[in-house]
Amino acid sequence: MTSEHVVLLLVLLPKLEIHFGIIIIHYLMEEPSADEIYAAFEEKVKRTIYIDNLSHQVTETVLKNALNQFGNVTKVEFIPTFFTPCSVYAALVEMESEKQAEEIIQDMGDSTLMISGMPRPVRAQKAKMEMFDDRPKKHHKKIACYWMDPSHQNFDAVNKIKNLTKKHAVEVAYLMEVNLFSIFV
């Protein structure tokens, strides 16, 4: 090994230890910062489309085959739709590029796409950050809670919001109880 190789090793490897003539190499991996993680997540959201009105018979392979005519599908994730009937499903489809995702949204906006001859035309929209379960938190945003002094100028408004929240919680609990009771009767 020449001195050039040793210098190159010292530049490439952050830490070398020599014990009894044996070189021990430590690989130090740098963790990505919170901003880098969030930026990568934002890019993922830009490449992802939300496809709605899917039949329960549509599988991941069927959806990939249907959308591969527009571009390369990277990932398909089926998500629950709580506000629609049980036979309607939705999916988050990650494409290879943002341009491909925009083309799909535009093409499916102009004409509907029937997947595997299913009787239901699907809809495509841009995905939103709130649709992802694995979204990272922004670390530079901090929520601060503190007790408010009764002499503060916004004390009355905050007190009204607190009472309204309590009222809504009681109403929701009652509606859940009535709805659950009606199911078992």
TrEMBL record:
TM region(s), chain numbering: 6-28
Keyword entries, A-Z: Membrane, RNA-binding, Transmembrane, Transmembrane helix
Gene3D superfamilies reported for this sequence: 3.30.70.330
UniProt keyword NAD present: no
SMART domains for the chain: RRM (SM00360)
Pfam families listed in its UniProt record: RRM_1
Gene Ontology MF: a single term: RNA binding
Positions of the RRM domain: 47-129
Listed SUPFAM superfamilies: RNA-binding domain, RBD
Domain of life: Eukaryota
Protein name (record): RRM domain-containing protein
Originating species: Mikania micrantha (bitter vine)
Record lineage: Eukaryota, Viridiplantae, Streptophyta, Embryophyta, Tracheophyta
